Amino acid sequence: MQPTIGAHWLRSTKGNARAACPSSGFNVDVSDADGVLEKQARDAVRFLKSHAMGLARLRRCKTFGGMTLDFGVYDRTTAERPWPTYRFPAPLIELAGKLGVELELSFYGVEPKEAG
Question: Which of 41, 54, 71, 82 has its CA 20 to 30 A from that of 14?
């Protein structure tokens, strides 16, 4: 459950009426911080800085459809804190916006207890 950046682009179905998939793309893991949003965000900033030129070049493709940075997190709800907050740091939002990358949160329920 690491954050991934996914890119997709529209595929032309011109001349192929039986095209099964109108889009195509790929996913890249940007962090190995399992479910810890703060660490994932820090790793994502590093990834976006390191790959800014390539991501900008990808965006310029004619059939480019979009990029999403998806963060997998556990639900932090507790009896004492029934409305937890999940915050993205400003540098992440700034870089993602500059590169046209959408941010997304995927919730995976309550963090499992470690066995043992």
Answer: 54
